[in-house]
Design brief:
It is built from 13 helices and no strands. The chain is an all-alpha fold.
């Protein structure tokens, strides 16, 4: 009788699990981009008005009927809607986003000039938000009930504060009254302070509550008690043990936070005169520049997909048990008490 084959791991090899994870992420990202492209296409067609007139400069351009007809033919607006949709997707798949009606420039060129500003604002905002959240979690869990209650109240207040109001207050206090930083972007490091704080503070409110709750739960776990019995200091316990477990839900939340930062850039860039895609989006919507609106929406969605994948990757690195295996083959994620048994 032939001996039985050794049992195989439900999740397969590590390379196979990571390959399946990457494939799922890629297919999911393509699905998101397709959905966003479809919504943009439909929304553009639902906006009242003639797209051909928008291309020619709007209703005030007084374009002749012949000019409007020529533009319709040039841009394919005289074709059936399904044909226009197929052409639209084909151009996007080939990386062609079209030309901006307002700027008379390829959308890809405009995004290449303005996207780095928005990404810099969002990345710096996320980093500052994490710094504020960790500081708030440390203070609230080490300074008693009053500190915990005060931090919770401030976190909730920060999370619901509108960007335009917060930006205006920061300008009045730190630019007008104290004169520490410029009121609008001037291309220097000091010019980034207020915009970054404006986008970071609301996100820090959400992250602070999430991290603080994770730290409180981890403090009651067996591994925390074991670390205290070994003489671990409060700072060491927080930095080397509690924060690692408390940060996991915050890392997952960071992908949503990045999307919030990009959307908040629409307001913040207008308030502080930053030349990013948020400010360009306001101009594009005002002037009915549909190719630019579509390009900004798709690029923002692509950035969100990438950040979501990076956040998932970081979470799996921080907690190796949440690796890229299939859901049915993955062991349940350990709680703080399970971690203490290691």
């Amino acid at each position: 009788m032939r001996p039985a084959d050794p049992p195989r791991s439900p999740g397969g090899s590590a390379a196979g699990r990571w390959s399946r994870w990457a494939l799922r992420r890629a297919l999911g990202g393509l699905g998101v981009l397709w959905a966003v492209a479809t919504i943009v296409f439909v929304a553009i067609r639902l906006i009242p008005g003639d797209p051909a007139l928008a291309i020619l400069g709007g209703p005030g351009s007084q374009a002749s009927a012949e000019a409007v007809a020529a533009v319709r033919q040039e841009y394919g607006l005289d074709r059936p809607v399904l044909v226009q949709y197929a052409v639209f997707l084909g151009r996007l798949a080939s990386g062609h986003l079209g030309d901006s009606y307002a700027f008379r420039t390829p959308v890809a060129t405009l995004l290449g000039q303005q996207l780095p500003v928005t990404l810099t604002l969002a990345v710096l905002g996320l980093v500052v938000a994490w710094v504020l959240a960790i500081a708030a979690a440390w203070w609230s869990t080490q300074r008693g009930r009053f500190a915990a209650g005060l931090t919770s109240a401030l976190s909730v207040t920060a999370s619901v504060t509108p960007h335009f109001w917060l930006g205006s207050v920061l300008i009045v206090v730190f630019a007008s009254a104290l004169g520490w930083v410029p009121a609008v972007s001037d291309g220097t490091v000091r010019g980034w302070v207020l915009p970054v704080l404006t986008v970071a503070v609301p996100v820090a409110g959400y992250l602070a509550e999430t991290v603080r709750d994770g730290v409180v739960d981890a403090q009651r776990s067996a591994f925390a008690l074991a670390a205290r019995s070994r003489g671990e200091t409060r700072a060491g316990l927080f930095g080397r043990h509690l924060l690692r477990h408390a940060a996991l839900p915050g890392i997952a939340l960071s992908a949503w936070a990045f999307g919030s930062l990009v959307s908040g850039a629409v307001v913040v860039e207008s308030v502080f005169a930053l030349p990013g895609i948020g400010r360009a989006l306001v101009t594009a919507v005002t002037q009915r520049d549909m190719p630019l609106v579509a390009g900004i929406a798709l690029v923002s969605a692509a950035a969100y997909v990438v950040v979501l994948a990076v956040a998932d990757l970081v979470e799996r690195v921080v907690d190796p048990r949440a690796d890229g295996g299939d859901r049915r083959g993955r062991a349940p994620r350990a709680t703080g008490n399970d971690a203490g048994a290691r």
